[in-house]
Amino acid sequence: xIIIHDKKDCCGCGACYSKCPVSAISMEExxxxxxxxxxxxxxCIGCGLCEQVCPFLAPKSGNKVIESWGCKSLNDKxxxxxxxxxxxxxFSEYIISLGGSVFGVSMSEDCKCAVFMQVHKINQLKYxxxxxxxxxxxxxxxxxxxxxxxxxRVVLFSGTPCQINGLKNYLGNDPAHLISVDIICHxxxxxxxxxxxxxxxxxxxxxxxxxxxxxxxxxxxxxIKRTDANHKNRFISKDEDAYIQFFLKDYCLRPSCYExxxxxxxxxxxTIADFWGVEHFAPELNxxxxxxFVIVRSPKGKSLLxxxxxxxxxxxxxxxxxxxxxxxxxxxxxxxxxxxxxxRDINRLSFKEMxxxxxxxxxxxxxxxxxxxxxxxxxxxxxxxxxxxxFEKA
Length: 394
What we know:
Helix content is 33%, strand content 19%. It has helices at 15-19, 49-53, 76-81, 87-97, 141-150, 161-171, 191-201, 242-248, 278-281, 299-308, 319-322, 339-346, 351-358, 363-393, and strands at 25-29, 35-39, 67-73, 101-107, 114-119, 155-158, 178-183, 207-214, 223-228, 233-237, 270-274, 292-296, 312-317. An 8-stranded mixed beta sheet has the order 5-4-6-7-11-12-3-13, sandwiched between helices. It has a 3-stranded antiparallel beta sheet with strand order 8-9-10, with no helix packed on it. Strands 1-2 form a two-stranded antiparallel sheet. It is globular.
């Protein structure tokens, strides 16, 4: 029987929920917005399957690194819509060309949460591209993956390392026609914090689309772009967006992310990530639009990369050197001292108050914002004068 005594011992992958043969487990949200398994003791038959599939309670040795590459898709449009170099789309297109299914994370229709989605058409991949900085519930997706595999359909499943490990534990094996792709994971932020952020963002108008890694101002200067119901876009850089800053400062991560037990025992076939440090190791791949760092961990992963590499500009790179620029591959983030206070406050303060308390502006930052607003005001005034002059002249 799954009983969570310490929340750092549960990653919320949902493998236990999916495996229970009598539906005695439900995934319920706690006060921080994260899902945890709750067992109905009256229904539980004591089979122990839930404990056997838990990637934290029953860890196994993972796949080792075979080789690593820097890659970017030759399709610039897809690459611009992707977080890095567009390699996930290339993998997915190949699987779909075989008549297979691709599973990944999309934003919900109301943009209030991240959800797993199954696609089998290339034009649907747009929903799965790009990072979603929220923990997505797996829901019934593990069971759906199993149904597809039982039909002998080729499947690509993309998720966090703990979700990949949970899926493979749930399946009990590693089917030849399953390809698993994970990411170098910083940690998963709380869906509750995202909902609070959206409540403030939608005080005046509803959001219909959101991009967490908008590259309008360059790959390294990414930010959140929201499209509202009036088809207007608003971009906020990562340095100024409160939600991104809460995430990067590690305030709103799941407790298990501070002591991740799967980082060094990944079951994935391929890991994809931002190629930070590309200017040092593969400068010819660095054009400011984004490059993928691709880590091959199994023969299946190597075969998949070989199938799509002709559609990339790519270069083999030294894993040990490159990974120094992305230590989240093997190292968990440190739990901030303010983390518990942060989550107590999120349920009693407005998001604006949270921003003021946990992201106080320095004098220089305040000056920069004043200058920026002044420039916008002057530009708006100039446009008004030009417009007035035009009509008076006419």
